Amino acid sequence: MSEIWFRTGEATVLAAEGQYTDAMPEVLIGSVRGPVGQAFASMLGQVQGHTRMFVVRDLNQLVRPATLMTTKVTIHTAEYAELLGGVVQAATGDAIVDCVIEGILPKDGLDELCMIITIWLDERCGSHEELDRKDLYRTNYEATKLAIGRAIRGEPTIDELIANRKTVKHYALDGVIDY
């Protein structure tokens, strides 16, 4: 395996109608001996409201490569924390293992890699009485696989970004700027 030093990726998968289950993970992948490994080790402590945890598929099922996840949104409720450490963590773990199975992540040398994944979980999910946990799983699973694949492949490339500079714009810019 050629060494993976510092790779980044992100993806967005949108929720089903009426849900707040959009998933937008951001992934950092790299060698345990490099800057990603240093950041990984530095994150082992806790920060109030932004729990950091190893990604596990279930009890006693730590994924490889070792992966830490943390939230982009401050945790305020036990219900939110339960979703994060339950459905979202399991979906993230399953996606990581499937990335190895499918050859997106190299099986050889996994213990030389580590990942950090920041997780978007809308704070309305914790109090949404009709939350579709299957959709929450789906969006996080799909987005995590996409983000990891994009990180490994270096997507989007700078050539893609240059080519679509005047045709793709952030959704928040609708009505703000015209190309």
Automatic annotation (TrEMBL):
Source domain of life: Bacteria
This protein's record includes keyword Lyase: yes
Transmembrane segment boundaries: none
Swiss-Prot/TrEMBL keywords: Lyase
An individual GO BP term: carbohydrate biosynthetic process
Domain Formaldehyde-activating enzyme, residue spans: 8-171
Alphabetized GO MF terms: carbon-nitrogen lyase activity
Transit peptide as UniProt keyword: no
Gene3D superfamilies according to UniProt: Formaldehyde-activating enzyme
Protein name: Formaldehyde-activating enzyme
